[in-house]
Amino acid sequence: MNIQCPHCESECEASNEHYGTNVACPNCKKNISIPDPEAKKRCPFCSETILKTANKCKHCGEFLNKPPPISKTDTKGQDIIEVKKENVLNRNRGCGDIVIFGPVILIVIIVILFMSKGCG
Fold first, then answer.
1. CA atoms within 13 A on the CB side of 15
2. Is residue 30 domain-shared with residue 66, that is, in the same domain?
């Protein structure tokens, strides 16, 4: 596994025996933490156990490079999950059309009915 030193940014090779340990950088001699690729962590989205080096959760499919949902607490102490505003707007987009065009269509139908009775 190639490791980059966080202090001097030089790259070095770490063997399997060094996984999960601290070693001295060959260039700057400062300690480097060598991650264990088999180490586990919890997914911040679904809380399932996944590899620590995973970029995407194999259980819920979420990418781990984006932040988890923000949890806020209301005045009663209950957790509230903050929803992005654009998601709410996109979800309710079709309802506005019904509110605007519903009454217009109804008026057009009434006018047509009255005109057909007056002509016949």
1. 1
2. no
pLDDT of residue 89: 47
pLDDT 10s digits, 52-85: 878 889 999 888 876 655 555 555 655 555 545 4
Kindly report the pTM of this predicted structure.
0.32
**In total, how many domains does the chain have?**
2
Quick one: 34 and 54 in the same domain? no
In a shared domain, residues 54 and 19: no
Task: Tell which residue, 100, 117, 54, 12, has the closest CA to residue 4.
Answer: 12
Helix, strand or coil, per DSSP, at residue 101: helix
Q: How far apart are CA 6 and CA 14, in angstroms?
A: 14
